[in-house]
Amino acid sequence: MENKGSKSYLFSIVLVAVLGGLLFGYDTAVISGAEKGLQAFFMGATDFQYSDFMHGFTSSSALIGCIIGSSISGLLASNWGRKKSLIFAGVMFFISAWGSMCPETMVLAKGEPNMTLLVVFNIYRVIGGIGVGLASAVCPMYIGEIAPSNIRGMLVSWNQFAIIFGQLVVYFVNFFILGDHVAPAIESVGNGLNQILNGGEAAWAIETGWRYMFGSEMVPAGLFAILICFVPETPRYLASIGEDAKAEGILAKINGAAKAKEILKEIKETTLVKTEPLLTYGLLCIFVGIMLSVFQQAVGINAVLYYAPRIYEAMGFDNPMVLTVFNGVVNLGFTCVAIFTVEKLGRKPLLITGSLGMALGALGVAFTFGNPELQLMCMISIMVYSASFMFSWGPICWVLIAEVFPNTIRGGAVAIAVAFQWIFNWIVSTSFVPMANSLGYWFTYGLYGVICIIAAVFVWKLVPETKGKTLEDMSRMWKKE
Prior knowledge:
This protein is an all-alpha fold. The protein is built from 21 helices and 2 strands. The protein has helices at residues 7-42, 52-60, 62-79, 82-101, 115-146, 152-178, 203-215, 218-227, 235-240, 244-255, 257-270, 283-298, 302-305, 308-315, 320-345, 347-368, 375-390, 393-403, 410-439, 441-462, 473-480, and strands at residues 186-190, 193-196. It has a two-stranded antiparallel ribbon with strand order 1-2.
């Protein structure tokens, strides 16, 4: 223990923390399987007409909570600590899963769709979004603050792996819940109104199926909320509130007793005060963090992650769901590329390479979409675009956001950066379908390709390389800028 710490102790802590990432992916993707049954259920309301606009809002209402959760994450992380903030996120996940499954709970009549029930359901989805927003900001921060500098990038990258894995898990869970039952087929009849084509055959999916899909999240949410109680607070936070002995004890378990004293000394040198004003280290520091978040979404990846079946169907493929699952497996594989190369190659090379790969893929889609003879090339371009994101902007953005800010402004700075991420997530997610329908897929993916090139230039010119640097080095680095 004097010379080296326990890797098993460190990895067990990180394993619990990345469950927050898995819940992040699970909660954002669960709607994909449930939304048709949910739509058909509320179309049965007699006191209002459930329009396409209402369904679009209901399907994405969790994003409102995501923006709220990420915005308050800095305040909670700085005042409650990283651990208590994650416990709170776990509780939010669980409440949302239960409430989304049974929004009538003990108050409203079971199975009777009406406007009050729709409002209550959306409130529960917003609560879940608050959990997602908190987890998206605090999980990378927690892992970044507890991990040794030489493997920090790899460990934070596991959070992105968990997000993608959580999305894949819920795809399969939704598939098994539906089983032999039929999902409702819904057809537009104009003016934002719809009709159910197979209402009788899809009765179970409309009344019950979507409830089980949302309720399934209670299992990982409850597990996360319980297990996070048994992990330690981060040494950086403990040192910032004067708990030096506890901080040193945790550092010793991870790094060894001798190294723990050295790290604690560095931490104390940069945490003479608990917090400092956000602009203490200059505007560029905050700007870089915000733009990392903006570019992670502006490159358009959610146009693939959220609408993959729609895109493959528009390409003319008969099996869009099979291609979507295959794309998910490819995404997992290329996320592993980042995990095992981020400490060898560094953050900037992966981001620049990934940006150029995404640009190639996006422009490939722009030039081949709609041409039956180039259908295969179009599909390959989508795969290249998605895979390039998964070894670059997907995980590496979270790594940099977790480590690029100095200790004394990290909570607030991360909150601002992640809030911008969710705002641009919403912008990209809601603009893709109308932009693709009105201006064409060639324009939409051409725009994403140009943004990818701009992102590569931004990283090359402005983003610092943080490979091998301690979190305490960040203070010295930005002071020199």
